[in-house]
Amino acid sequence: MLAFAGGGCFGATGNREDRAVSDVAGIGIGGIEVIALKDGQMQAQPPLFPDYDAEKAVRAAAQAGIAYDGKTVDISINAFVVRSGDAVVLVDAGSPPGFGEGTGAFGQALAQAGVAPGEVTHLAMTHLHIDHVGGLTDGAGRAVFDNAELISGEGDWRHFHSDEVYAAANSRARQSIDVSRRAVAPYANRRREVSGETGIAPGVSMVPLPGHTPGHCGVLIEDGDAQLLIWGDTIHAEAFQVAEPGWSVLFDADQAQARATRVRLFDRVATDGLMVTGPHVRFPGFSRLERAKTGYRLLHLD
Ligand SMILES: [Zn+2]
Asked: How far apart, in whole angstroms, are the C-alpha atoms of residue 68 and residue 78?
């Protein structure tokens, strides 16, 4: 670990002004620097998980070593910066203002990491949900990252701009889509979509992991033998879904596909001993996945 400085913030759910200001944690993948940025923490409740079973949930959380009171479970929101050669790749951009009480520290974490917005060359978006695009624009709707190209997986832009998807959504989901649309709008003329595993910068590739959204991607970082997969929203609740990979979440656009992708990916990650982290893995998330009594367990490196 390089410059690990995340202590004192875990479990913090108060207003961001109350929190300690060390919300960054870095790691080297060969010669590539990866810095986790903590946006904050949100809470999820059982109805988010259609396959929820109270007994299994308690067992899963205990195996994961995560506190669960039977009502709500904490979920981290993270983004990442990857410095490789001349490229400064931002992987996701946190949640928007007003998203939750314990969220919204993305911009502050980016500054702590010593990254000026103008330096960012690539915006590698795992997908375009609200808690991943929130920091792309300022309060006036202007682009924060003037020199960066927005890159997302094939089908995501269309999905988030689809009249059909919008018409089928409830009012809360529509509000969320509205925020996503506003956040990505200034990048409409400097964006591209990728299909299949696609290199976007030296040692940095987008890897399709469809299901959560049509274009949902992971970002694979590799230099020599060193590898890290930022697996996007493969899981939301580490407390439940690592032990129970069959559990999808309500806002997986295609729950069955998301489940199949997660089950396949977990097997590969555990078999290969691949280092992973993600936007919703307990900050900073750098970990390895091992098979456990029930499903899997994440072994955090911090
Ligand atoms: Zn998310």
From this structure: 20
